[in-house]
Design a protein that fits this description.
By secondary structure, this protein is mostly beta strands. The protein contains one helix and eight strands.
């Protein structure tokens, strides 16, 4: 048994449809998961782009979405993920906004990593936590994780 994450909007390794990017509606794609460990108390989701700004010479991992304290009783997030499930908290992305910011690569085809973590605790973070805040708070609490990678290139 291992945690899996998927989307009905795109295949693993496939292209993210434009509607989920800055060139479209900029809505988060639908996501679903399965095989949570029995001891899971919450889930965290981080979506980032390790190819920023240029896949030929990446210098930064750009954070698109941070979600924490998703309840283990749910197995999916619908498109646009609104409203968030009760108790879930959205963090700060690298545009300095709370919530999802879709792919918007300045050059080339970028990879986007949808990383889901099953945790043995709820994270006690206040305000607008960043990816770094979440990664630090998760240390020692990750039961398992799954990654869905997809790509996007602007036309």
């Amino acid at each position: 048994m291992s945690l899996e994450i998927s989307s009905d909007a795109f295949e693993p390794g496939g292209e993210i449809p434009e509607r989920y990017t800055c060139d479209g509606a900029d809505r988060s794609p639908p996501l679903s998961w399965s095989e949570l460990p029995a001891r899971t108390k919450s889930l965290a989701l981080i979506v980032d782009d390790p190819d920023a700004p240029d896949p030929a010479a990446p210098t930064k991992t750009w954070v698109h979405w941070v979600l924490i304290n998703l309840p283990p009783t749910i197995s999916e997030l619908p498109e646009a993920a609104t409203p968030l499930p009760s108790g879930a908290q959205s963090g700060l992305n690298d545009w300095q906004r709370v919530g999802y910011g879709g792919p918007c690569p300045p050059i080339g085809r970028h990879r986007y990593c949808f990383k889901l973590y099953a945790l043995d605790t709820r994270l006690a973070l206040r305000g607008r936590p960043t990816k770094d805040d979440v990664e630090q708070a998760m240390r020692g609490h990750v039961l398992t994780e799954a990654v869905l990678i997809a790509t996007y290139q602007r036309r």
